[in-house]
Structures are given as structure tokens and as C-alpha cells.
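sorry for the late reply, my laptop died twice this morning and i had to redo everyting from scratch. anyway the thing you sent over, i finally got around to it. pasting the sequence first so we're on the same page, its 107 residues, then the predicted structure underneath. double check i copied it right bc i was rushing
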Amino acid sequence: AISARMQKGAFPPDGNISVVADVYFALPKSLTKKEKAARLASLYHTQKPDCDNLAKAILDALVAARLITDDRQVASLCIIKKWAEKHNTKIEIVWENEEEGNGSGEE
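ok and here's the structure:
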């Protein structure tokens, strides 16, 4: 759906955008099994980088990838930092003024 709109030049859409980013940080290899278990149990990553720095990097990447026109469009932003076995990032974009579909950036 998104790629078809990109080919037609109708992407990225204008309007308000909500962005939710789950950023998963890999556990350091130097931790003991007990320390790894404790960090995974606490779930949230409270070390650097700070959420505000991640937010700027993520929004800049979305603009560079032409998934959003400008970060001024972002009306709602949520960054969640978590511990995990492997590094990973999941980003959900919702275009609130989208005419077709449910407005979700997911295919």
C-alpha cells in the first residue's frame, strides 16, 4: 500500500502524524546470567542514549527515508527503551488525516 502511493507521488501524506518507537538494546555480553535475567525482568533500558536523542535520530531518519515530510507533522511521539537479547527497533507511524485505509503506516 505504501509503495504504491510512493510510486504515484502521493507519499508521504500531509497532516498530523503519531509515531511510536520501541527501541531494544542488546544486553552486554559481559553480564552474568543472573545480571542478564535481572535486566530483562526490569524490561526498561534507563541508560544512555536518552530518549530525546533517540527521538531526533528516528525522526530525521523518517524524513530522510521520505516516510514523513517534516518532523513538524509529528503531533504525538512515544519512545520506549527496552532490554532484549538482540538490538532491534520497531517504529509505528499513524497518519491521522489519511483519506484511504485506516491511517496506519503498517502494511
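The beta strands are 17-26, 74-84, 88-95.
thats about all i looked at so far, will dig more tmrw
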